Amino acid sequence: MSLRLEHWLKYPKIDAHCHAGGENPGDRLVATADDLGVVEMRCSQPISAGRIAPMDEVRARNDKTLEAMNRHPDRIQGMCFIIPGYFGEAIAEVERCLDAGMIGIKLYN
């Protein structure tokens, strides 16, 4: 490892845009973060490529983020993914996620 990299690794970092999925949500992300000196992560699970997914799929993505938060409560903070066009359903999902401990909103599509 170069001395320059060692110098920067000693400073704690926050990743403000990451995704914690997989079979054990957050485990791989936290392991990689440890290698890079990242102490906190703000995570979401957006559905990309312009696809307007059904609300049950949006909820399932947020559930994965909540699972990652529960597995790594000192490291992962969740951002509630929502597709704004769902109006009332979107508001209810944001309230559900915030009540469960998420700290913000990730608007997409």
Q: What does this entry look like structurally?
A:
The protein has 4 helices and 4 strands. It is α/β, with parallel strands linked by helices and 109 residues long. It has one domain: TIM Barrel. The termini are far apart.
List the helices and strands and how they pair.
Layout lengths: L2 H7 L3 E6 L8 H10 L1 E6 L11 H17 L4 E7 L5 H12 L4 E4 L2
Parallel strand pairs: 1-2, 2-3, 3-4
What key phrases describe this protein's structure?
single chain, 109 residues, alpha/beta, TIM Barrel, 4-stranded parallel β-sheet, 4 strands, 42% helix
CATH topology: TIM Barrel
Structural class: alpha/beta
Measured by DSSP, the beta-strand proportion falls in 15-25%
Strand order of the largest sheet: 1-2-3-4
Distance between the termini: 40 Å
Mean pLDDT: 90
- Shape-level CATH architecture: Alpha-Beta Barrel
Main pleated-sheet profile: 4 strands, parallel
- Look at the structure and give the CATH class: Alpha Beta
Summed up, what is this model?
This protein has 109 residues and is α/β, with parallel strands linked by helices. It has four helices and four strands; from the N terminus they run H-E-H-E-H-E-H-E.
